[in-house]
Structure formats: structure tokens, C-alpha cells
Specification:
Blueprint (H helix, E strand, L loop, with lengths): L13 H17 L2 H8 L3 H8 L7 H20 L3 H17 L5 H34 L6
């Protein structure tokens, strides 16, 4: 891997950026940039712009990188084989993709149904409370 041509953004502190550079070099020695983009859930063209120095590295990029690759970097430092790491990360990706996704409109419909049920329960409780107050403070019946 040749020397990286990345540059920090305005709010990125120098020690954090230097550590990021070292970790990124370690990562890119084992994996390609396209793999990093896939694991981060980013477009590889946009990530390529950042890695080639066209766009600066922001604090959000640092957070995303370490959120995704911190476990990979730790495993690389411990000497875990690259194929094992890739296999573990691919299993994680597959598990995420298997989960069923709901349509936004289905989700809104479910929320509306829940709200209607809760509104009915609240209405019933208010009625019971009002009724119990009338009994407690209402007219006294002669016995």
C-alpha cells in the first residue's frame, strides 16, 4: 500500500487524525477500499474521493470508520488471519440483510392502529374516573 493522500477536515484534531491514518493503513494493507465502503455502508466512489485527498476527512468519517472497523483493527493487531475476519464480517452483513424490512406506509398504519387502541383505552379510563368521582361526591341517597 502506498502512502495515503488524505487530509483532515476543519474540526479534526491532529492526534486523532494521525491515529486514524495509522489504523486506515493497517486496514488497507489487509483489505481493499471497496470492502471498507461496503462494510461502512457507503458509496465506494465517495469514499475514494476522501482516500485520494479530493475531499477532507471529517469527524463523522472518523466516527463511521471506528464504528465499523474498530473490531477489525483489533483483530488485525492480534494477528487473526484476514480470511477469518472477512468471513466473520460477511456473516454479520448477511444477518443484517436477512431481517425483514417494512414499508414506511405499513409502519405508519401500524402506528395509527396502536394510537387508536391507546386512545380508546384512555377514553374508557377517563369515563371510569369521571363516573367514580360522581359516585364519591354526588348526592347522597336517603337510606
Amino acid at each position: 500500500m502506498s502512502k495515503l493522500n488524505i487530509r483532515p477536515g476543519r474540526n479534526v484534531r491532529k492526534p486523532e487524525f494521525e491515529q486514524f491514518t495509522l489504523d486506515l493503513q493497517l486496514f488497507l494493507n489487509a483489505f481493499c477500499a471497496a470492502q471498507l465502503a461496503r462494510w461502512m455502508g457507503r458509496d465506494k466512489g465517495n469514499l475514494s474521493k476522501k482516500l485520494n485527498g479530493i475531499e477532507p476527512i471529517t469527524t463523522k468519517d472518523l466516527v463511521d470508520f471506528y464504528g465499523t472497523a474498530s473490531s477489525v483493527i483489533t483483530k488485525l493487531e492480534k494477528g487473526v488471519p484476514v480470511f477469518q475476519i472477512e468471513q466473520d464480517m460477511t456473516l454479520v452483513d448477511d444477518n443484517i440483510k436477512v431481517e425483514p424490512t417494512k414499508n414506511m406506509w405499513e409502519e405508519l398504519g401500524l402506528v395509527k392502529e396502536t394510537l387508536k387502541k391507546q386512545h380508546a383505552v384512555i377514553k374508557t379510563l377517563k369515563w371510569r374516573l369521571k363516573r367514580s368521582k360522581k359516585r364519591k361526591y354526588g348526592r347522597r341517597r336517603s337510606q
